[in-house]
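Anyone up for a design puzzle?
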């Protein structure tokens, strides 16, 4: 068994054995929500279920991003997510769902290239600041994702040059949901502990 699989197995065991209280250590520190240059909704694979319906986690994130937009906290929404299993992109699925909730297409930007969270951050910055970014572009971004994912996502957005604000989605009261997200984030956290803080990913989906 590879060392990476061992790390993942240990993380899963910890998540299932330690439960919800330990998983809360992954949460990003809470900050007051304030006006930002854009709302960034991070994708989650797969974005649709076997019947083609928007997956629950994806729907939660989009709905939360739409709620922030309706509160007037930003004039633009970035849907961030690249190629999805079975074709299409996460960004397009999320954009279509946001439009079904009444968001004008004109305010939605689509980041369609990313394969992982680090690329979410890098390609979102390229979309907002231009591919040839100088160090002068540092947008304030309301980053929407699950509470378990946000601490890692915020660090990666800071590495990319943004000023991120955590905007976590509500947590479903489902043990399986909590365990699966906790296990994955612990596994990634342990794996990244051996790499420089802002190192780019070397394998699709690894971060």
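Challenge accepted. My sequence:
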């Amino acid at each position: 068994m590879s060392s990476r699989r061992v790390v993942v197995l240990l993380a899963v065991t910890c998540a299932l054995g330690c439960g919800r209280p330990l998983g809360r250590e992954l949460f990003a520190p809470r900050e007051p929500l304030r006006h930002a240059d854009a709302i960034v909704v991070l994708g989650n694979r797969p974005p649709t279920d076997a019947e083609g319906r928007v997956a629950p986690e994806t729907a939660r994130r989009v709905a939360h991003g739409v709620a922030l937009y309706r509160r007037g906290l930003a004039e633009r929404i970035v849907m961030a997510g690249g190629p999805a299993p079975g074709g299409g992109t996460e960004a397009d699925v999320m954009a279509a769902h946001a439009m079904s909730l009444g968001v004008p297409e004109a305010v939605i930007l689509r980041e369609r290239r990313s394969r992982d969270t680090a690329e979410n951050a890098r390609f979102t910055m390229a979309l907002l600041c231009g591919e040839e970014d100088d160090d002068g572009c540092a947008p304030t971004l309301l980053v929407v994702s699950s509470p378990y994912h946000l601490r890692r996502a915020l660090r990666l957005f800071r590495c990319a040059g943004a000023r991120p604000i955590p905007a976590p989605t509500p947590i479903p009261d489902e043990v399986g949901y909590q365990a699966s997200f906790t296990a994955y984030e612990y596994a990634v956290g342990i794996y990244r502990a051996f790499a420089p803080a802002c190192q780019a990913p070397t394998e699709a989906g690894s971060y």
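A detail worth pointing out: DSSP finds seven helices and five strands in the chain.
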